[in-house]
């Protein structure tokens, strides 16, 4: 009964913290504006194929490399395909792969970090040595190597990026867990005989969740860059599937005669990555653990 009361008090404290954090985030006008923009992009990723004005796969060489016009607001590419339609459809692949990769990488990394930081000893050493080896390679090189080994495709791309990014979450989670396990309420939970899994996911994880959210927001931008970079190098989704990185690659040969083919998808990538970084800054300020501690 006492444990239930304690859990309820802690739950209410966390709810008040996040309500206050949301209020602080809304006060950051720039971050809130980019959150709105990112929301529009995600809506486009969901409904894009249904609102595309043209078939994004239909080739019309008679209208190849046309500049933006009333009929084609963003112009046409080197094969006469409508760029607006390809942008709308491609958002599902670029954003979808990135977000799924971030979620999967965070789940793997947070779990390993919790286990390593809580149990320490041999488990900690083994996990962190693997993480150290993976972090020794630049993210883009590791992603290229994994994509080459796994092959092209939606699933392969998600796995490659998830494996590339999860070591960062593992190290972050492990370092914070090492600090949290020294708190008095963790010692009290152990004395009460609570199971280790219960302590990790009911007491430790809620305390570090805000930091993980901020890190995931930043890495969503990095994941988009990785997806686009792999698409640019021909290691992403197989053509003719519209993906923003591969669209830049197909238009790079026409930068002088038809620059809009490459510049427009590049603009969408830049705006999305910038949006995630600014929202991440806003979340960092709003969820700053030093501003108010979560019990």
Describe the overall structure:
Helix 5 packs across helix 6. This protein has one domain: MetI-like fold. Helix content is 75%, strand content 0%. It has helices at residues 2-27, 29-51, 83-119, 121-135, 139-150, 154-180, 184-191, 196-232, 244-251, 260-286. With 295 residues, it is mainly alpha-helical. It has 10 helices and no strands. 40% of the residues are buried.
Write the layout of secondary structure elements.
Layout: H1 2-27, H2 29-51, H3 83-119, H4 121-135, H5 139-150, H6 154-180, H7 184-191, H8 196-232, H9 244-251, H10 260-286
Helix pairs in contact: 1-10, 2-3, 2-10, 3-4, 3-6, 3-8, 4-6, 5-6, 6-8, 7-8, 8-9, 8-10, 9-10
Give a quick set of tags describing it.
single chain, 295 residues, mainly alpha, MetI-like fold, 10 helices, elongated
Précis, in short:
The chain has 295 residues and is an all-alpha fold.
Give the SSE string. Answer: HHHHHHHHHH
Shape: elongated
CATH architecture: Orthogonal Bundle
**SS-based class:** mainly alpha
Give the C-level CATH assignment: Mainly Alpha
Helix content: over 70%
- What portion of the residues fall into strands of 2 or more residues? under 5%
Rounded Rg: 23 Å
Give the rounded overall mean pLDDT: 88
Spans of at least 5 consecutive residues whose pLDDT stays below 50 are 291-295
Distance between the termini: 19 Å
Main pleated-sheet profile: none
Count the strands? 0
């Amino acid at each position: 009964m006492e444990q239930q009361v304690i859990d309820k008090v802690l739950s209410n404290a966390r709810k008040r913290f996040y309500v206050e954090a949301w209020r602080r985030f809304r006060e950051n006008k720039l971050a809130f504006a980019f959150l709105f923009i990112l929301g529009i992009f995600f809506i486009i990723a969901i409904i894009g194929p249904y609102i595309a004005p043209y078939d994004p796969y239909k080739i019309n060489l008679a209208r190849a490399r046309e500049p933006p016009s009333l009929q084609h607001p963003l112009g046409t590419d080197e094969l006469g395909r409508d760029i607006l339609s390809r942008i709308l459809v491609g958002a599902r692949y670029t954003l979808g792969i990135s977000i799924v990769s971030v979620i999967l990488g965070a789940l793997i990394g947070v779990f390993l970090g919790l286990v390593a930081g809580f149990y320490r000893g041999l488990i900690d050493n083994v996990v962190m040595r693997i993480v150290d080896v993976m972090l020794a390679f630049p993210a883009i090189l590791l992603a290229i190597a994994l994509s080459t080994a796994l092959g092209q495709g939606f699933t392969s791309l998600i796995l490659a990026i998830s494996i590339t990014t999860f070591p960062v979450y593992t190290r972050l989670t492990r370092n914070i867990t090492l600090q949290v396990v020294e708190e008095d309420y963790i010692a009290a939970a152990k004395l009460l005989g609570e199971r280790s899994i219960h302590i990790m996911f009911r007491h430790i994880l809620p305390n570090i969740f805000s930091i993980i959210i901020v890190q995931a927001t930043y890495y969503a931008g990095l994941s988009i860059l990785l997806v686009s970079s792999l698409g640019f190098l021909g290691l992403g989704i197989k053509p003719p599937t519209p993906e923003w990185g591969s669209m830049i690659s197909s238009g790079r040969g026409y930068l002088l005669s038809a620059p809009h083919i490459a510049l427009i998808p590049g603009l969408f990538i830049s705006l999305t990555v910038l949006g995630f970084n600014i929202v991440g800054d806003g979340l960092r300020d709003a969820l700053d653990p030093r501003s108010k501690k979560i019990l």
